[in-house]
Write a structure and sequence with these properties.
heterodimer; A: 498 residues; Sodium/glucose cotransporter; B: mainly alpha
């Protein structure tokens, strides 16, 4: 349990209810347009540039951006927040990949589809393990952040706040699918950016750069040190972690499939450029903590505590709204994309190859509910700090960078090389995490993976045919009564061989 | 080597300026998409 409440529990409850009603209503409203499972999972594959850019931004602005960026600024100083900002590189580098994905796989559904078609079943299953582990790690970190935020600001018990936020996100994602996710993302993006800008200006006004800098120089000079070795390692590690997260995660691939042709490249590029300054603005808020002399019992609470201390109830309300929006915008995306991955790559490909559109739709809903339930249980356990939890997954995801990037652009990369790159890269990353520190896990994972991909591609080049990525679209998908559905663009594929 | 107060100031101001432009750009894109019928 944390300090005394900064925000009156009554006000917190009102904000929680008001925004929850808004998101659920919008989720239901936009979800009415989803006629079949492809509408539900990929919003009809026609999302335009405005919504596309906003959803890429909003999904990448997580509560971690608003809570862990300040934490890292307080632990690693300037490079902590700039390092976090390099997470934008992943979005920017994904821009040409999004275009390539849409061109190569016009009827694709998931990142798993690509790995399966490009590298075969064994690599696909290794990839699914990595991807699902990361997805659960991210979901749990988001759920925990919700509970921590509400408790820190209002004193409402951790498990209540966490349950409410998780429950609301599950509900409106369930009701509306990807349309609900993307539509709410647009609104949430505006709230987040405007809120952080207002917060940043208010901190400058109340404290000022000179006082912040002077206090840090006296009490925490290491935070201003541009040559802090651990911080520099963290900077590169975070860059690779971010790239690994985005390159492999179905959250971004599903958007690449959902965007209108020609939108993906621009959307991801603009989103990356607009996302980059947000961790810097959020991190700067934390650097004011030594100057104002507040007690920070948990490092991931420094952002909300500084805002509330400096700005009173208004600051606490503002932070509450920003972080709730950031949480919701990422939770919904992750729930939807992870559900897609499980429904398409596990349910349909492994269990029910002849599943009809309504069956898939029902499965998607059930999986969202189950994911929410598992996340809730893991959040109740209240594991390590958000940063350490998330960075542990970096050991895994960074190993997928080279197999995916090379796999999309280089026909010589072979399946064995890609598979071993993922396996050994993950092992190297986990060992580095365990024996050196979190700030090198992704660095080691990506490096080992890169060497293996490059060596195997050069020594045993393959001859992949890009046409193999275009699976045949079905002639018509039947409903439960055996009648053809309106949509005929859902792919069929054979079950994987053992 | 420590970051100077002016460098810190410039860094944060640039971040805030870009963050001010972002919502305006998103709304402009939305209006354009709406006019073209390409929102989704």
């Amino acid at each position: 349990m944390v300090n005394e409440a900064i925000l009156d529990p009554g006000i917190a409850a009102i904000l929680l209810v008001a925004f929850s009603v808004l998101w659920v209503f919008l989720g239901w409203w936009w979800g009415r347009a989803a006629k079949d499972v492809e509408d539900y999972m990929l919003a009809g594959r026609k999302v335009g540039l405005a919504l596309g850019t906003a959803t890429a931004m909003a999904t990448w602005v997580t509560s971690n951006t608003t809570m862990v960026a300040p934490q890292l600024a307080l632990q690693m100083g300037i490079w902590g927040m700039v390092g976090y900002s390099l997470g934008s590189v992943g979005l920017i580098l994904f821009a040409p990949m999004a275009r390539r994905i849409r061109n190569l796989m016009p009827t694709g559904f998931t990142s798993g589809d690509f790995i399966r078609l490009r590298y075969g079943n064994f690599a696909w299953r290794v990839f699914l393990l990595i991807s699902l582990f990361y997805a659960m790690g991210w979901l749990v970190s988001l759920g925990m952040a919700g509970g921590i935020l509400i408790q820190a600001l209002s004193g409402i018990e951790y498990w209540i706040g966490m349950t409410v936020i998780l429950g609301i996100c599950v509900l409106y994602t369930l009701l509306g699918g990807l349309r609900a996710v993307i539509g709410t993302d647009f609104i949430q993006t505006l709230i987040i950016i405007i809120g952080i800008v207002v917060l940043g200006f208010m901190v400058i006004d109340k404290v000022g750069f000179d006082d912040v800098h002077a206090r840090l120089t006296t009490e925490r000079p290491e935070l201003l040190n541009l040559l802090m070795p651990a911080a520099i390692m963290f900077l590169f590690n975070n860059l690779l972690f971010g790239v690994g997260e985005i390159f492999h995660s179905n959250v971004w691939w599903s958007r690449a499939f959902a965007f209108r042709p020609g939108v993906g490249f621009k959307a991801y590029l603009i989103a990356g450029l607009f996302w980059a300054p947000i961790p810097i603005a959020a991190g700067f808020v934390a650097l004011a903590a030594p100057e104002i002399g507040i007690n920070v019992p948990r490092p991931d609470m420094v952002g909300p505590l500084v805002a509330a201390n400096l700005l009173g109830t208004a600051g606490a309300i503002l932070v509450f709204i920003i972080v709730f929006s950031a949480l919701a915008s990422s939770l919904d995306s992750l729930l939807a994309a992870t559900s897609d991955l499980i429904v398409e790559d596990i349910y349909r490909k492994h269990l029910r190859p002849s599943a009809t559109s309504p069956m898939l739709r029902r499965a998607a809903s059930a999986v969202i509910l189950i994911l929410g339930g598992i996340t809730w249980i893991l959040c109740i356990l209240n594991l390590a700090t958000l940063a350490s939890l998330l960075h542990f997954t970096g050991a895994f995801v960074a190993s997928t960078i080279w197999p995916i990037a090379a796999g999309l652009f280089w026909k010589r990369t072979n399946k064995k090389g890609a598979t071993w790159a993922m396996i050994l890269g993950t092992v190297a990353g986990v060992l580095a995490y365990r024996y050196i520190g979190f700030y090198v896990a992704a660095l080691f994972g990506a490096s080992v993976s890169m060497v293996i991909v490059l060596l195997t591609t050069l020594l045993r080049p393959g001859t992949f045919d890009w046409k193999d990525l275009k699976e045949a679209a079905p002639e018509g998908l039947e409903d439960d009564d055996g009648d053809p559905n309106a949509s005929s663009s859902i792919r069929t594929s054979t079950s994987p061989s053992a | 080597m420590h970051i100077s107060v002016s460098a810190l100031t410039i860094l944060v101001w640039i971040a805030l300026l870009v963050s001010c432009i972002a919502p305006i750009a998103l709304l402009t894109l939305f209006v354009r998409d709406r006019k073209g019928g390409t929102v989704w």
